Batch of 4 targets.
Target 1
Amino acid sequence: MVRRFATPRAWTAQAVPPQPFRLGNRIPNEFYPTPPEATRALLSVEAFDGPIWEPACGKGAIAKVLTDHGHTVVSTDLYGYGFGESGVDFLRQREPRAKHIVTNPPYGNGLADRFLHHALTLAMRTGGKVAMLLNLASLCHPIRTAEWQSAPPARLYAIDDIVCWPEGGEYGPPPPYFTKHRYVWAVWTPEHAGPAAFWWLSGADYR
Ligand SMILES: C[S@@+](CC[C@H](N)C(=O)[O-])C[C@H]1O[C@@H](n2cnc3c(N)ncnc32)[C@H](O)[C@@H]1O
């Protein structure tokens, strides 16, 4: 199966200091942490039989849940949040750091597409799974249809009622439009071919 998932766009990595959130702004560095219930929900339906790389770990929201469930986790991020190894641009990594990859990637400027393409390329070498928390709307967009068809995930899990937003008041509460975002866990396995299976998960069941 040919795995192509690329829409590279011009992008430069720069740490951006926190700034007051305004409508339409993106949070600096695309830092939208994953609530723990989202990862617990994933682990209720997916098993990982070896070490896991969280290559955009942020403050460790996903990595901590994986570790709590007994997994060995390698945590890296391009930026520093006091968790894991910082200064690691996932898109420039040529060697896999663990068998499986699980992350909620940065979305803006085509980064989610680039992360996915790169994760699938690395996982082909390890025989591991790739699980990405993506915007549900990304499943249905003209720029991606061919890519979804050529490299379909094994499973898709729509997950309701989660909000990926930094706690602590730095940016205030999530704006109302943001709470309407819907997410999906997409899981690629090395042996999969053909249509993806689709299932539903509820964030409230894992809070
Ligand atoms: C949506 S946040 C998710 C953080 C974490 N995965 C979680 O679920 O809480 C995206 C993360 O990607 C990181 N990031 C952005 N560009 C990156 C890159 N090129 N390589 C590695 N990490 C990157 C950001 O610093 C941020 O922590």
Target 2
Amino acid sequence: MKFDTAYSLSLDEKLSIYDVRDLNFDETTAFDSDKDSFLCPNDECRATFDTGNALSTFNAKNVNYLRTPHFKNKTSTRHIDGCRYASTHKTTTGENDDEREENFPSEWLLTRRQYERKNPVVGTEGNVPLDPTKAPSSRISTPLPASDTAPDKTSVFAHPVECYVSNIDDKDKLKSMPLKIGDHTATYWTFFKKIEYLQDNKGLIYWGKIKAIKDYTSSFRIDFEKKVWLDRKPYSVNVYLSKKLIENYRKRKAFLEQIKAAADSERPLYCFFYGVTPELQQVPSKKNPDQTFGVFSANIENLDHLIIREAPGVEGL
Ligand SMILES: [Zn+2]
């Protein structure tokens, strides 16, 4: 049994596991999922038990993961009769249902979800709860209306990406599941575009196998393996991550840990991004500085909309 959401005791809100990951890595938020308690999202069920009747998390804090993150029942977790989150099968069936993301959000919100901490963190002494009436001055964007935080919407890019990657062997499903991004609605299948076909359409989620990550210490360039063809000529594709972008990122530590490991990794890694479309540019040649060559390139503008990860199974597409 995988949960679409769980109730966070410290935030008094229902969160997806991707929200939890986002909060764990966010250096501007005092949140640690190990110090929180996650309870059944069914209001009636949750009200029946005390707050010790908690769920456990899987891959809530792992920067790089292969298996789909999720909340799950502990052996001791109880539910009321008829609660749809009650485990329906015996433990002997193994964990096969953990291997794919089944909760497809119908909309990916490009504005980040905001949280107001309502309850003190459980089990930590001397922790001063934030006064919800005083928003930190750094908080610029206004909170989303409650209707926009319904479970079928997500503001965490990793969620639709996990839906795509973990269900890559089920094209019919990806072709049938709707996804809305901004003003556009399409299917998961249509929204994810291989990097070599980026000229087909703008405004999609482009992805491809990483050829190399150039580490310039405070900035990075991600080179893709596949080339874009234009007028019968192949062009390299890359995206550039500026120093300023990384320094101002609220998940800077986790991001640097991930990209530095990726740069040294021997394993096949893929990059997914949204929001910019690489375009043909002329750049000076290193060997002959008075010569230029063409490359499809873009500057990433929002690190929340970029993911580097393993993606077994996408190779055969
Ligand atoms: Zn329940």
Target 3
Amino acid sequence: MRSQPGDQALQVVRALKRYVKNLIEQDGSPVIFNTLAASSPRFKSEYFHKSLKRYVPGQPAYDEGCKLPGHSGLEALAKNIQVCSQCGLAGTRKKVVFGEGDPEASLVFVGEAPGADEDREGKPFVGAAGKLLTRIIESIGLKREQVYICNILKCRPPGNRNPKPEEIAACQPYLIQQLKMLHPRLICALGSFAAQTLLDSNEPIGRLRGKIYTYQDIPLVPTFHPAALLYHPQNKRLVWEDMKRIAGILGLKPVSPKT
Ligand code: SF4
């Protein structure tokens, strides 16, 4: 029986789907992820998160400049992101906030997104929440310069609104790359969005915190975002518990918090 034009079109579509799926499973190209994640919730939920689980430290970077070793790779990535327009936040940001701190740090803090102060200065956690984060870091006997601080989103959502799923999906390859280059001994996820993104979870931070997880074999401790602590200071006690957990893993001596 001769096949109809409609059948042939269906076969082509199926073959194309298989081809794209194979491509993703072979090299996990973030460019393809971005395109598919933006166009189809199915691809976002099934394949984007799958790529996170398959990510292995030491695999080649997707950007040529970022294949440079050590700090040079991180600097190249930071430079590339300055002109990024992968999501709508490119149109409203003042400055891209890549992250800052010691590239050799044992401990990396990952927050949600830049606020107004960060957007203006191009640095993470520089406002009131940033001052509180500095005190939290000092509570485990470290100086702010001894850790690395970054966010899930590198550009500010207008009015400090919550990040949209498509913005997180667009920006996530940068974070994956950044964490791969930093390869710390421990990650502290600050707030629901950071914890949910890194742990591929929908649970709120109140439920996620209090336990130790792993992200690509790196221990991960979730805790409340410092900005949330400004409104709910009663949770500082729980953050102190989480910091003691971090200090225990890293062999640090916690000092009495000044928060
Ligand atoms: S938030 Fe991330 S993906 Fe969106 S424009 Fe900024 S750097 Fe690019």
Target 4
Amino acid sequence: MNTPDTTLISLKDLKTPKGSFLSGNLNDFKKKNKHRILEEWVKEYGELFTIKLGPIKALVSANPDINNTILKQRPEKFRRLSKINEVFIEMGFHTVFNAEGEHWKKQRKPVAEALNVRKVKGYYPIIKEKTSNLISKINGYSNSNKDSIEIINDFIAFTIDVTTEIAFGYKLNTIHNKEDSFQNHLELIFPMINERITAPIPMWRILPNKRDKKLKESLKSIEVIIYQFIKEAKQRLIENPELKENPSNFLEALLVESEKEDTVFDEKTLYGNVIAMLLAGEDTTSNTLSWTLYYLAQHPKIVDKIRKESINCYSGNVADEHNQLVNLKYTNAVIQEAIRLKPTTPILFFQANEDTVINNLSIPKDTRIILQNSHASMQDNNFSNAKQFNPNRWITSECPYKNHNPKVIKAFGGGSRLCPGMYLSMIEMTTVISSICKQFDLNLSVNPSKVEENFAFTVFPENLLVKFTKVN
Ligand code: HEM
């Protein structure tokens, strides 16, 4: 009989990639494809290893079992990396994303409720209108025969327009108005969060550079706009008390929460969570849309299959109703496959709240942990022919492969902190991809190898240039 091996493994037993004497692996970790560098190290050092970021040692885990346990043991045993909270708070963001413990629990409930299936169904007219705007913009590119469109900018504008209306009922049309300051301000924030979280020394506090100063101005401008929205929403609730029963947007719903006795929603938290919606719903969704287009522009037969599915499901340019989207199964499979191969959140940063043991691995209190989640999606034992883009693997009756293990995909995180915007983003992406493929042929205007992954808290495609041709 085999007895289970109960020998404890400590962090000291794990290997560490060679780095420089003082900064350790920091130089590699500053690179824009750091998530892929970690994947390479997994091949060399195994699913568990440590890296040195200057004086700090961090555990890297690409083990799906351990990663799943860490995700599930929150908020008690693990939290987000405390540096994330530090950077967020310094920017004035008191949000559900960086809250912990009881404070997080109280914020999570109303945020998740505002994004549940029933609410998203109610938001569909907004998604439909913004998709129509996007399609008319792409129509313009096609009519003027433009052959190198940096489509990610339009996807960012689309997601900002959708989330601003859902968040505080404000109608933006960034897609047709590039000058809109909101997009410009928000675009600065994500890369700066990434830089600051991974910076060994907070240089922006000691010697702020031009970008730091610009960020400060942008944060100030956003604050002014959002506090004005809060003031207006408060007034609306006073004038129309019936809105308290049925708030018309996310901000009104949070204001109702803020009137409860044990509320955690003060002005700062209201502001923070509106910002969180905008930030969390922007890059993640627009990057995933862009990566999906990256594959579609190389697979005309797949575009054709989506087109046929769209023609069968609805008659106009954009799906008329939320209910029609359940029939866009192939479109959904294409997006799942793009997420598997190009997750926009391939690594997540955590910290241990207490001494813990998971599967013989002893993790001391305060250990910094990087969950490398994209490695597992690229393994043939989880997904046969893992490197191949094949949406059919997501359709049970058409899956040509033996191995299919969707549980290892953690693009939306997991456990009680699973991304609450997952359903909303899937609805947005299905609507957009189906609609684009219904009306346009796509071509990549650059060699696929020139489209590079850039990790700036989320991974976006650099140099993605696409040509759109209207189909008859
Ligand atoms: C493709 C699109 C998206 C991806 C890949 C994505 C991914 C993620 C991931 C990985 C997390 C961390 C989860 C964890 O810690 O376990 C997260 C958290 C979060 N996401 Fe998303 N997200 C997307 C879209 C959205 C949208 C559209 C919204 C809202 C408008 C949203 C709101 C949030 C919020 C509020 C959190 C914090 C949840 C918490 O800490 O409890 N996300 N998301």
